[in-house]
Specification:
By secondary structure, the protein is of the alpha/beta class. It contains six helices and twelve strands. The chain has one domain: Rossmann fold. A hairpin with a 2-residue loop joins β11 and β12 (146-149). The longest helix has 28 residues, at 155-182.
Length: 183
């Protein structure tokens, strides 16, 4: 299973990223990083991450799941048409997309939040509701292929939900492949 972390180039929540990366990799998940620039991205706490790819080059079929890391810099992603299109394509292909904290409004800007249950920070609730979404106020919310976490305190729960979704995808993929082979 292969997951892409989506981070802003500057001021992403590096604690959130490194905790999530450790949890996923300890569960056997291969991770890569995509950002708006290929040079070192700097987190809120000045930790550096070298992206593996540019977001504009990423396709939904390239990965099994996508995790959007929060932090103040996540707003850089809101108005990027390539990010909006990527999110729509991820959901069209029934792949998992997880967003934490300040990254959650990406769903609003991609116009995919209508009638969805999500969780977000109180100061971002207006965007969620403007898009027709419902903020549950929980630490973690799952609605179909969308997983949202309230903030960096939700990282473990989000990681567990992503691993569970990947496991389900893997089992579903294996069973549909065996049906095709038998048929």
């Amino acid at each position: 299973m292969k997951v892409l972390f989506v981070i802003s180039h500057y001021d992403f929540d590096d604690d959130e990223y490194f905790k999530m990366k450790d949890l996923l990799e300890s569960a056997g998940v291969h991770t890569e990083v995509g950002s708006t620039h290929i040079s070192e991205a700097q987190g809120r706490f000045k930790k550096l991450v070298v992206p593996d790819c540019l977001l504009e080059d990423v396709r939904a079929d390239d990965y099994d799941a996508f995790i959007f890391i929060g932090g103040n810099g996540a707003s850089e992603l809101y108005h990027m048409t390539s990010v909006q299109e990527l999110v729509r394509n991820i959901l069209l292909r029934h792949k998992t997309v997880a967003l934490i904290g300040e990254a959650v409004p990406v769903l609003y800007y991609a116009n995919v939040i209508n009638a969805r249950k999500i969780t977000t920070l109180e100061n971002l609730r207006q965007e969620v509701e403007a898009g027709g979404g419902y903020d549950t106020g929980k630490s973690l919310e799952k609605d179909g292929d969308i997983i949202t976490g309230f903030d960096n305190r939700s990282v473990k729960d989000v990681a567990d939900a992503v691993v569970e979704a990947l496991s389900w995808q893997s089992q579903h993929k294996e069973s549909s492949e065996s049906i095709r082979l038998e048929g």
